[in-house]
């Protein structure tokens, strides 16, 4: 709608209702915000994801803590491809694949954010990675990748819960912990330990084949997404330090007029949503 037409519409509505132009603008703004997700919906979404990631991460630790490849990555491909599938690995995969499959189907009703497309690519890449690693018997490295990813997601979703609950100080502390954990797990351990393992150590046991290149390509796609989210997180961290953080840069925030904002005088936490968004 062009600007002149918009002004004419506001003027017409004002005359019909005997409202000022500011009152008409406020009504349209409030009506538009009614269709946007409320804090309660965001709180529920973050809460159940936190519960899942926490259980998944703890379950992954229980399943992997006594395995030799958890401490020595050279053991990941020993005996490949004839490696026995353990019950703990089976259930770890089933639960994780079910979860990411549900995210793809629920993306239409979940809270939409600015990195919606990147999130969708991430979910598909993760599900493809898990499915292919299952079929190619890359089970050991697959479980390690899942564990590394879940570590940061636990703090991410917990931070969102406290953000939507209005616990600013706790939220900021969790955001700092999340930032450190994300950088270590996604930008250090993931590329320099796990991807290095699949690129180099695997060649000690077998010759490269299609699955070798395909699997590593998907890992690199995930790494690029991590770099993208890391840039958002660092930008929010800088704003938090400078005291300029007003909310989650990935969120579809409600808009308020200056009068409404002054009346509410509402303070937001840093609000990283995987960034505090999530990355996912």
UniProtKB/TrEMBL annotation:
It is a multi-pass membrane protein. It catalyses: sphinganine + octadecanoyl-CoA = N-(octadecanoyl)-sphinganine + CoA + H(+). Keywords: Lipid metabolism, Membrane, Transmembrane, Transmembrane helix. The keyword Nuclease does not apply. CDD domains: homeodomain. One of its GO terms (cellular component) is membrane. Residues 41-242 form the TLC domain. It is found in: Membrane. GO terms for biological process: ceramide biosynthetic process. Pathway: Lipid metabolism; sphingolipid metabolism; Sphingolipid metabolism. GO terms for molecular function: DNA binding; sphingosine N-acyltransferase activity. Residues 249-280 are annotated as: Disordered. It comes from the Eukaryota. The chain crosses the membrane at residues 50-70, 90-109, 209-234. Residues 250-259 have a biased composition (Acidic residues). This is TLC domain-containing protein. It comes from Silurus meridionalis (Southern catfish). The lineage of its organism: Eukaryota, Metazoa, Chordata, Craniata, Vertebrata.
């Amino acid at each position: 709608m062009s600007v002149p037409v918009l002004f004419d519409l506001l003027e017409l509505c004002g005359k019909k209702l005997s409202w000022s132009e500011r009152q008409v603008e406020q009504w349209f703004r409030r009506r538009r915000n009614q269709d946007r997700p409320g804090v309660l919906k965001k709180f529920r979404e973050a809460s159940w994801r936190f519960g899942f990631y926490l259980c998944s991460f703890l379950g992954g630790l229980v399943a992997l803590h006594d395995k030799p490849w958890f401490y020595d990555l050279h053991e990941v491909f020993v005996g490949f491809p004839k490696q026995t599938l353990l019950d703990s690995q089976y259930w770890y995969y089933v639960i994780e694949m079910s979860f990411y499959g549900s995210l793809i189907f629920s993306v239409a009703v979940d809270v939409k954010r600015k990195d919606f497309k990147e999130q969708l690519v991430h979910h598909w890449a993760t599900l493809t990675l898990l499915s292919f690693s299952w079929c190619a018997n890359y089970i050991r490295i697959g479980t390690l990748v899942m564990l590394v990813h879940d570590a940061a997601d636990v703090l991410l979703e917990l931070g969102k819960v406290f953000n939507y609950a209005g616990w600013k100080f706790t939220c900021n502390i969790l955001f700092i912990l999340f930032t450190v954990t994300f950088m270590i797990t996604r930008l250090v351990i993931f590329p320099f330990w796990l991807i290095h393992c699949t690129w180099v150590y695997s060649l000690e046991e077998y010759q490269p084949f299609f699955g070798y290149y395909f699997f590593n390509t998907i890992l690199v796609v995930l790494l690029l997404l991590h770099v993208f989210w890391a840039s958002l997180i660092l930008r929010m961290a800088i704003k938090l330090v400078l005291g300029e953080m007003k909310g989650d840069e990935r969120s579809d925030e409600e808009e308020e007029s200056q009068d409404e904002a002054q009346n509410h005088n509402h303070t937001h936490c840093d609000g990283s949503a995987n960034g505090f968004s999530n990355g996912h």
